Input
Amino acid sequence: MYRIAELALGAAQSAGATYVDARVVHKSRQDVQVKNGAVDVVASAHSAGIGVRVLCDGAWGFAATCDMADAAVMETAQQAVEIARASARTMIRPVELSPVDAAVDEVSHQAALDPFQVPIAEKIDLLLSCDAAMNVPGVAVRQGSVNCTREEKWFASSEGARLWQERIATGAGIEATAAAAGEVQRRSYPASHGGQKACRGWELVEELALQDHGKRVATEAVALLDAEPCPQGKMDIILTGSQLALQVHETCGHPVELDRVLGTEASFAGRSFLTLDKLCSLRYGSEVVNIVADATVPGALGSFGYDDEGVPAQRVRIVCDGVFCGYLTSRETAPTLGRSSNGCMRADGWNRSPIIRMTNINLLPGGGGALADLIRGTDDGLLMFENRSWSIDDRRLNFQFGCELAYRIQGGEIAGMVRNPSYQGNTPEFWGACDAVCGEEEWQVWGVPNCGKGEPMQVMEVGHGVAPARFRQVTVGVAR
Ligand SMILES: [Zn+2]
Output
């Protein structure tokens, strides 16, 4: 495959490109879903092609093809140069890339059990057993899914980089929806919106033990129908697992993408309140809030060996003792800060140009101990689980999240189930009200497989490591 990539490099350079990179990508995906005791989806897809990105006359050009014949690849490379020349006519300033060592390397996947080798019948049997466990009176819809993705990628640049990377990711989840008298309630495991996903193999699905949680999620969904509505007002809240991961994703991960800050990306609530003047000066959160972007966490969904500019995976500080101190950058944007790229450029397949994407944006564990300790130390509050809805403004400043379930905490003890819980806040005020993050023993990385960005939309797999955290006197109410 390097031969094809090098053919593209040569053709683009002959046509006048001053920089070229070529990515040959093979991507496969398999989805198995069961709904209400029947197989709902068994699907697989495969895609292969080459994308060529060039700089010519100081501007970017990109072209891609799934025709891997020599002539088609060379023509595609020449087309990328033509596009760059055309773009240069309206250029504001020429692109300058921060330097990177041209690496030659191979990075294998981290799956112990290849999920594509597990028979589809075994996947269906697992989901049917979960479905049966969720079949309790009052549950109207039972759903379960497993999916896996494999990507093999050859990256070559005119600077000499030659990188082969292989990646396997596996995901799974179940959910039960109960309905009665106009009320609809859903519970999911291990996370809402499709479950958990990681750069691991079938061993992840085995560890999740989905079938052991079927009855619980179904029973909770039914119990929520008659639960007390969420109280309104100001209250302490404890966020857990995938909900806290989504909180980090929306209010930290997206606003620290430097292309949004510089105004070259604006889709999907796409700007940022974290403007350049705030770097190393804005108090983003309290002193217990420490956030890193870490593409090196083994098995995490946002991990890789090198990004799609050939920059090695890194661990960089984003928030240090509450102070905002770093962005997610690319080779083009990093010089704005006088820095080198921290390796966040990724493309959704061969036919898309890379843009700045989250890696694993992780809230580091704190000194809050176990979740039980946090609950014991809370006099009057809410313990919230799994996301149900969210909204956020264009600058990622004001937000509202609804959760599937909350428990009322009174006098340090769980005091009953609450339905339709929601909370709202302003990003720096909210993180400023964080007074405790649980310790290492509660810390876990959650995969977000469907982060959308760009036009045309690129879907990216990212991750968030979190341990449950408490936020004091947050505005809570009934989700609408
Ligand atoms: Zn996202």
